[in-house]
Specification:
26% of the residues lie in helices and 28% in strands. Strand 18 and strand 19 form a beta hairpin. By secondary structure, the chain is of the alpha+beta class.
């Protein structure tokens, strides 16, 4: 008997391969998945790529201990060699290869287009990709990206205690995660991210959704908030209960001062995303904001760059101001240009 969501998963896999990555006959397609992830999504994606005439390889491997370069020693040499030699790379790893050394090589080669879908299982792939109205989603995301590109001074607050201000550099790009047809890094639909002027970031960030730092630092949904005190773009103190004390020690034990620098901010605007403890989904919960620190991806064109690892935390139900104008309150968009577009997305 067919498993629940068989047809829905097939539809989502088709969207991933045909519409998002835009795989063509004769191209090489690498699908990576670690032992902590659901094999089924990789298998279904591989079937679609094969049907479209691609040369497909699925690389299943043991799960690394953390994200980024922390994962390097655990990666098989054959996998390290294969990643930069593929045309299209779809990553389902729960412990990301994102920001690892082979990822850096692949993203610099001008050939490989990478779609990061870290840890997504059948349910998440269906909700966050297969069931979206991509035309409506594209219209909404394009509009808020355009508005953000024009904003110079911004402020984000939450009822949990976030109150952070910063300035944007108009020359820096804003990532708009929809498709993955061009060489370089791409991510799950519904996230919009950028690197503010680092030294302009001042205030308090309170993670009240979830926290993900890879390996033992994958805390998932938080029982207690984690408050970061920020001065000139750098974490100067961490306050809270057991989770905050863990993160404080984890950072100290990493012995890398670059890990204390804020790398980027992102909006979450995927109407299918739910807070489940998986960072890939959590940072796209509609109306949230996400702050990452440590390694700064080259796609942000910021002033930081390398670090031992990367961590992300979610601020739920955010209120956002652009140049003094409130565009979203407690996770609900208010700007008149955005309201009808959000409704078309189901929000």
């Amino acid at each position: 008997m067919p498993t629940i969501n068989d047809l829905e998963l097939a539809k989502a896999a088709y969207i991933i391969v045909k519409d998002m990555v835009q795989v063509k006959a004769g191209e090489s397609v690498l699908i990576t998945i670690d032992s902590a992830s659901e094999w089924r999504v990789a298998e279904e994606t591989a079937k679609i790529a094969e049907i479209l005439g691609a040369k497909v390889m699925v690389a299943w491997h043991s799960t690394p201990d953390g994200y980024g370069k922390v994962a390097d020693p655990r990666l098989p040499d054959g996998l390290k060699a294969a990643i930069p030699e593929t045309d299209a790379w779809i990553e389902f790893n729960k412990q990301w290869l994102l920001y690892s050394s082979p990822w850096e090589v692949a993203m610099a080669n001008g050939r490989t287009r990478n779609l990061f879908l870290g840890g997504l299982d059948t349910d998440r792939v269906v909700r966050c990709i297969g069931q979206l109205d991509m035309e409506a989603q594209t219209a909404f995301q394009n509009k808020i990206v355009s508005m953000t590109q024009k904003a110079r001074k911004m402020r984000v607050t939450t009822r949990a205690g976030t109150d952070i201000s910063f300035e944007n550099d108009p020359k820096r790009p804003i990532t708009n995660e929809l498709t993955a047809e061009t060489p370089g890094p791409h991510f799950l639909v519904g996230q919009i991210g950028w690197a503010p002027i680092e030294e302009s970031i001042q205030g308090t960030i309170v993670y009240d959704g979830s926290f993900s730092g890879g390996g033992e630092a994958d805390l998932g949904i938080l029982d207690h908030p984690i408050a970061l005190k920020i001065e000139s773009g750098k974490i100067v103190d961490i306050e809270g209960q057991s989770e905050a004390m863990f993160v404080k020690k984890w950072l100290a034990d990493m012995n890398d001062p670059r890990m204390y620098h804020l790398a980027h901010i992102c909006y979450g605007f995927n109407p299918g995303a739910q807070l489940t403890g998986l960072c890939t989904e959590d940072e796209r919960v509609w109306g949230s904001t996400e702050w990452g620190f440590g390694y700064q991806g080259p796609m942000f064109e910021g002033a930081l760059g390398d670090a031992a690892s990367h961590a992300d935390g979610i601020c739920m139900n955010s209120t956002v101001w652009m140049d003094g104008e409130m565009i979203m309150e407690d996770g609900v968009v208010l700007h008149p240009d955005l309201v009808p577009l959000a409704k078309a997305c189901g929000k």
